[in-house]
Amino acid sequence: MTNIIACIDGSGLSEYVTTASVWAAKQMGCPLTLLHSLEKQTVRTDEDLSGSIGFGSREHLLDELVALDAQRAKLALEHGKLILENARAYAQKAGAKLVEEIQRHGDLIDALIDLEDETRLIVIGRLGINHTMDAHTVGSHIERVARTLHKPILISVGQFKAPKNFMIAYDGREAADNAIARIAQSPLLIGLPCHLVMAGEDTPARRAKLEEAQAMLEEEGFEVAASILPGKIYPVLTQYREDHNIELMAMGAYAHSKVRQFFVGSNTTKMIIESDIPLLILR
């Protein structure tokens, strides 16, 4: 059975990531896996230390540093286990039925790759443990996860509450059509009113694409309000979100070779950085 993977790092967003993951697990009827990765910056190696001693230093100093590093690694391991235990208790209290804990040494991306075949959705915080809560930045892992993994990503941006509606940022391209298909076939957002929004010129061709996407969603039981609004993507989506009290936004990522362009592009970067609602990125 495929799982919801929650990336837990002990940052201030970990509680919100766990809450979002529990909601997704309930919606999709999937077990929840809490993943914590002990990454390189957390634990230094003996080679790192021996290479930094320099000439003329005493051997006992290296021994002391290695012992100190081993103690640091042990504490990091114990701290990670405590983070997972707390997240598990929180998830179970929130109603998660099947919860698993996984702790890995090494890069988070490598851990996610190892788990990809049994993953249905990845949930991650916009800001990681190395960022402040008010930092205007995208967490260091989000771009790499989207570039490397081929699973949907739910980005938690703050305190999470179960959404009562959602908006799809639609442009008629292949990535957007793929996102529509995935949403239509998934139970994650079923039962929620859908706002399908296209920014720019209202041409017959674009109107036809919008209506086709709307029909696909309605065939699967979604209630859809579709709109084409004049203007540039970011301000149009932002204004629509505010006017209609949208609580979750979904958008498609480009094909593998263009995913970096997706993040470098100013509209999407602004949306991820400045959004105050969760974002669902679909490949």
Report on the architecture of this protein:
The chain has 283 residues and is α/β, with parallel strands linked by helices. The protein has three domains: 3-40 and 78-156, Rossmann fold (3-Layer(aba) Sandwich), CATH 3.40.50; 46-75, no CATH class; 166-277, HUPs (Rossmann fold). It is 45% helix and 19% strand. It is built from ten helices and ten strands. The protein has helices spanning 14-28, 46-52, 59-93, 108-115, 142-148, 174-185, 204-219, 233-243, 259-264, 266-274; strands at residues 3-7, 32-38, 99-105, 119-125, 153-156, 166-169, 194-199, 224-229, 249-252, 279-282. Strands 3-2-1-4-5-10-9-6-7-8 form a ten-stranded mixed sheet, with helices on both faces. The longest helix has 35 residues, at 59-93. It is elongated and about 75 Å long. This is Universal stress protein A. Residues 2-155, 206-283 form the UspA domain. InterPro entries: Universal_stress_UspA, UspA. Belongs to the universal stress protein A family. Pfam families: Usp.
